Amino acid sequence: MTRRAGENVGADLPVYHSTARDAAPANRHRQSSRPCLANGDLQIIFVSLPRPHMHWRLRLADWAIRWRFKRHAERPLDVPWARERIGRPLWMRRVITLPVQRVLVALPSHTIEVLSPPIGAAAKALPPVERVVLYVHGGGFIACSPSTHRPLAARLAREWRAMVVVPDYRLAPEHPFPSGRHDVLATYRWILETLGVSAEHVVFAGDSAGGGLAVSAALACLEQGLPVPGAIVAFSPWTDLTCSGASLVDNIDRCAMFVPSQLHAAAHLYAGTTDRDDPGVSPLHADLSSLPPLCLHVSLDELLRDDTLRLAERARAAGVTVRCRTWPAVPHVWQFLAGWLPEARDSLDDARDFVMQHVPAATLAALPSRLARQIQNRASRV
Description:
Layout: E1 21-22, H1 56-68, H2 79-85, H3 90-96, E2 101-106, E3 111-116, E4 131-136, H4 150-159, E5 162-167, H5 179-193, E6 202-207, H6 209-220, E7 231-235, H7 247-250, H8 260-271, E8 294-299, H9 305-317, E9 322-327, H10 342-358, H11 367-381
Parallel strand pairs: 4-5, 4-6, 6-7, 7-8, 8-9
Antiparallel strand pairs: 1-9, 2-3, 3-5
């Protein structure tokens, strides 16, 4: 929620303790005395925000993530182990994935997974498709795939009235920068040319490394001769692969998932022979003035906090419309737990409202069926 100057900061706290707050400047201590309104489209609120008492759902999620990931954090980065570990157990992924229509499309360098609201009887209560979301999955540039992120992408398809296109982009260390960004841009070109969707109806979205890659791809659109998308939504984006944010020190114990050494190792694998402060690798260091409206969500207790808050500050300074919200105590990319955590539900609802505000609706109701017929006809000719 964006507050105006002079409003009572603590007047409408929800019943659960992990309540969202608008972004504070990077590296600023979270305790301050009075609200403040910044110039431009990013409004900044300084609030007194002590460590909250976590409700039982959040405590359970925090414990489970620490047990599954943080207890292994001091070991050297093991790419095969990470690829096997993230997204498991499979039965849980299947249980939390909402019903959607799913189509696979092969492009020259990679495949893409296209998710749409279900057709037929299962879709009676769902609105028609009005936008296309190019969703870039996270995983530290070294792991994950459309299948690991299908629970979140499927929810976006149903709730954002969207066809969600998830590229299975090439991963490091086998394919360092710029391979992944090339694949994201190729997917975007496919949306524009093959699906025939106008750029103003397309949203770039992503989480963690995928959030940073979505921002990097949007910045590369102009040099590739592509129009910028209508908006960007990034959940806890990794935007600074030099790992210079103060939150890597401040939150080393609070973060339930990572330790700094893991981020440094993954950044090295992704950058390859490119400098880690290269604007394509670390979009935090790029000229951000060409970005479309930008929605950023991050936890105040994760290592990547300052990657988001500094991006919000610099984008606003470059004239970009920015919506940045923070939540205390929640884990990295907590949006996966929208069926469990009220904070995750709040985040997705806020991002949906941002998309509805900044990305105009289009008449795309027939798009999923048309794509399915194209794939079927192509297969029958083979």
